[in-house]
Design brief:
The complex is a heterodimer of chains A (about 210) and B (about 160). By secondary structure, chain A is of the alpha+beta class. Chain A is built from six helices and eight strands. By secondary structure, chain B is α+β, with helices and mostly antiparallel strands. The chains are: A alpha+beta (about 210), B alpha+beta (about 160).
Chain lengths: ~210, ~160
């Protein structure tokens, strides 16, 4: 197992990880814009290193209902990646994608869930693809899994993965909007060895 | 009514009746509630991982693990006047939020967290008198040391008390 932990990662490494996240989120938004067939604007992503205690609060509280799409990451690096949007934003995205042909109501139908999985798949795919191009590493997503639940509960999954490496979670918040504002979050969770491999491939060996 | 004290992820707190303890949105994590029914001292730990010894470079936060978190919770309760021999526990959480065909370690972590919590409580001779773990949904839990009620809320389900 690697020797790296997020606590020990220096400022310059953190900058590299942030920049990767930034580029990934940018590409993901481009993919989303193409899929929806409309212009999607994006704010400069906020990148935060959070203590676990603070994790839930950042998305409007631990009990805020979110849609989370989780994909495994395979290839030269391994780990997982998560894309999260708030429930109403997810409804809006799905409605756009299905040209408004969605049932009324608060619940998600099977078809809507499947559409949301696909949105997550495309966004995460674009994100990972750009990461792959920059690092020259082979990175593939596995088929997505979806959950609609409290933010805290969904986030416990990536938080636990980060918990193996330290006391913080690295989160990329990208706010994007067409006619309504949508808050989206990306969490990339490389395994310990994969951190070294990503940084190494960029000419920044850890030791 | 007392105050309700919030416990974050990888965090633990103790209190005395009439105060209560809450932790929001438990997923694969476990909320371990312990109470001394005589002094009405209560404690709630929100642990994320089963075993502190299985991981190197795991950071400084002992509340993160079932083994060290429960031990510390009991210590803090004893400092408030609770007696170990009287303590009883209730646990909730440990859901599998994403299934992935049940393959990876990550999928199993909820079940392993529950197992590790049960093991540690047994080691400390603290009986578990109620349990609501597993399944695939998140839980918010509120614990009242006054009567030992452990209230569980989940999305789209009615509130239950164990």
């Amino acid at each position: 197992m690697g020797d790296i932990s997020l606590e020990k990662v220096s400022e310059s490494y953190m900058d590299v990880l942030k920049e990767l996240g930034n580029i990934g989120a940018g590409n993901a938004m481009t993919a989303l814009s193409q899929m929806l067939g409309c212009k999607v604007d994006m704010r400069v992503p906020q990148i935060r290193l959070l203590e676990f205690k603070e994790v839930g609060a950042i998305m409007g509280g631990e009990e805020q209902i979110m849609v989370g799409v989780l994909l495994g990451v395979e290839g030269d690096i391994t780990g997982s990646m998560m894309f999260l949007v708030e429930k109403h934003s997810a409804k809006h995205l799905i409605s756009k994608l299905m040209m408004g042909m969605v049932p009324e109501g608060d619940e998600f139908s099977e078809m809507e869930l499947s559409a949301m999985k696909e949105v997550g798949n495309i966004i995460a795919g674009a994100y990972l693809n750009s990461l792959s191009v920059i690092t020259n590493l082979k990175i593939f997503p596995t088929p997505p899994e979806l959950a609609v639940d409290m933010a805290g509960a969904i986030l416990s999954v990536p938080a636990i993965e980060f918990g193996i490496m330290g006391d913080h979670l690295l989160l990329i918040q990208s706010q994007f909007f067409d006619e309504v504002e949508i808050d989206g979050y990306f969490i990339l969770i490389p395994d310990l060895d994969s951190y070294e491999r990503i940084l190494g491939s960029l000419g920044m060996p850890v030791k | 009514m007392g105050e309700i004290i919030k416990v974050g992820m990888a965090d633990l707190k103790t209190c005395m009746s009439p105060d209560g303890l809450i932790t929001l949105g438990l997923g694969s994590c476990i909320g371990i509630a312990i109470r001394d029914p005589i002094t009405k001292v209560g404690g709630l730990a929100h642990i994320m991982l089963p075993d502190s010894k299985a991981i190197q470079n795991s950071g400084q936060n002992i509340a993160k693990f079932a083994d060290t978190g429960i031990a510390e919770l009991v210590r803090q309760m004893e400092r408030k006047g609770a007696l170990r021999s009287r303590m009883v526990a209730k646990i909730a959480g440990g859901a599998t939020m994403f299934s992935f065909g049940g393959k990876s370690d990550l999928v199993q972590v909820g079940a392993r967290n529950a197992e590790a919590s049960i093991k540690k409580l047994k080691e400390l001779n603290i009986p578990i008198i109620a349990q609501d773990t597993g399944a695939n949904y998140g839980r918010t839990v509120i614990f009242y040391p006054e009567n030992g009620n452990y209230v569980i809320r989940a999305v789209g389900k009615s509130e239950s008390i164990i």
